[in-house]
Design goal:
Strand order of the largest sheet: 1-2-3-5-4
Radius of gyration: 17 Å
Distance between the termini: 36 Å
Order of helices and strands: EHHEEHEE
Helix content: 25-40%
Structural class: alpha+beta
Low-confidence stretches: none
Shape: globular
């Protein structure tokens, strides 16, 4: 006796990748284009997911242009979307030796709170080596029900 074949809906992974200049303008453009791409993937502007991604991309891109910048080198944004399951945000720069951490800043420190925001909003985040040079900061959002 054979078991009946079960049919599973195919999973389509959607990917958006773009390079941006390592400037504040490039970071703003990365955020805007990320939201535009989410809207094309039917994640509407102003939804909870869209707003969360906007904050994550803004923080990771700002970090890339502030701490990961090398003159003449761009940073890269990649969004990987598996509908109904997960959305992954990768921001890559060329400064592999400057790795971020979510250390708690002092009360009088003017900066250092951005990755605390990433830690609070993302399902998980990590820092990966980028071949041949640099690093990628990855934040993931679980979208399951």
């Amino acid at each position: 006796m054979t078991s009946p074949a079960t049919r599973e809906a195919p999973v389509t992974v959607r990917v958006f990748t773009q390079r941006f200049s390592s400037t504040p303008r490039g970071a703003r453009l990365a955020r805007r284009l990320a939201l535009h791409q989410l809207d094309r993937w039917r994640i509407p502007y102003g939804s909870e997911t869209s707003d969360t991604v906007a904050l994550l991309v803004a923080e990771l891109a700002a970090n890339a242009v502030t701490h990961g910048r090398l003159p003449g080198r761009d940073f890269e944004l990649t969004l990987t979307y598996t509908p109904g399951l997960r959305l992954r945000i990768d921001v890559s720069d060329t400064r592999g030796e400057r790795r971020p951490s979510a250390a708690v800043p002092g009360l009088l420190d003017e900066g250092g709170r951005g990755l605390l925001l990433v830690d609070a909003l993302a399902s998980r985040w990590s820092v990966l080596d980028r071949v041949p040079v640099g690093k990628t900061v990855r934040a993931e959002l679980e979208l399951g029900s």
